[in-house]
Amino acid sequence: MKLLNAQQLKAADLHTMTNEPIASIDLMGRAAMACCTWLEENLPLVKNVAIFCGTGNNGGDGLAIARLLHHKGVTVHCFEIPFSSASEDYIQNKKRLPIPLTELNEGNLEDAMNSIQKESLVIDAVFGSGLNRSVKGLAKEVIRKINLLQADIVSIDLPSGLFVGFNTDNPPEGIVNATYTLSFQRPKLSFLLPDSGQHIGKFYVLDIGLDENFIEECDSPYSCITKAHIQKLLTPSKNPFVNKGPFGHLFLVSGKEGSMGAVVLAAKAALHSGLGKLSIIAPRCGLHILQTKVIEAMVEPYGETVLEGTYLPKGSCFATGPGIGQDKRTVKFLEGLFRQLSEPIILDADALNILSQQPTLLNSIPKNSILTSHPKEFERLVGAWNNDEQKIQKLLDFSKKYHVYILLKGAYTAIACPEGHIYFNTTGNPGLATAGSGDVLTGLLGSFLAQGFTPLQSAQLGAFIHGKAGDEVEKETTARMLTAAMLPNAFAKVFKWLN
User: For residues 207 and 199, is the Cβ–Cβ distance under 8 A?
Assistant: First the structure.
């Protein structure tokens, strides 16, 4: 699912209006109807609504919503924040409004805010996706007071004051802090980034009938991974006579004394996701643990308490990093391994920390390898950044320079590609921020790569299924209770959901 910038969103509106065809005010009515349907389905008990409208097209959406809610018996109070000029569609919707509209100014603002009942739902329709400068003056003060209300806030299209893309120099005090955001046709890039995503609450994408063919033809470096895309990748083989061979052989290079749990987590994730065969390369101290906890795997011991010595690869698909530590002997072990490999590998955890300490090793990594890091690990590789825009640029630069795929883990995990594209994952919850979760992801990535998926496909599958497994666990327990060991057992539900 491509993400569009503000100019492309406007172009998609104009293209749809011209080619469907549909009048702009009717498209606005369609958007308002979609919002009201969402409100009925998700907040059916709301009986009092306060709507704040700017005098542009986002405000026109707000007035159309106000009219529809009024006709459904909801008590609606409308407040207008006047701009220097009003859009034609706003003017038309204002004429159609069957209830009073209070124009806000510095003199009546305090009384207007005090008039809002505590049980009211607040709908924010002040600024839309066309905003390109920070909010000031009366509008900023209105937004500040909206954020102080003890009420749920539903923002239309995006929270007022927020830009569609990066918000590097956009002060947060001029942005609505929404409880829910109802985004038209596509999420916005700003929803998926930590600095600006804090304003979104939970977002929902509403289909308002914009021309999807036009949108897919737009040139954008950003996309979201969707269920439909993952389902296409996982189309099952129809051959009933298949054996384990076509499902791949993964070599998991992992572990040191005291860290064998990481190996077990990665191994179970690989084996629970369709892998044909698993070999574990680990120190001898973990032999009993691994052959007890992961009985399906073959174990080849190298070293006593840490990985050491010279390993001669017996396959082509490797994953390494979980639990290996940073002992000098292990560093030499990895150096020797990298020199002998030509196919993409999975690198995680201490493998990344070793690379940050030995940056010359980066040139030894096979092209198209997958690096999966949390922000601190990535910072050790590339240096600090001051904002999301700098971080994204560092991701793209590093990916291109070394021709690797990078999964930057977190909410909406970002997958950076060598050709300059970034895919954002759309599954997962805060419960995944727990020890061992990354080890599970490494096992998943290695499994899909061994099964013959491309590095990009493997990264997309791994991130999406890992996150969805966390969502399934959260349904059964809570995000607070989630542990990494629960995730592989949830894969079955995920794969059934995808079938």
Answer: no
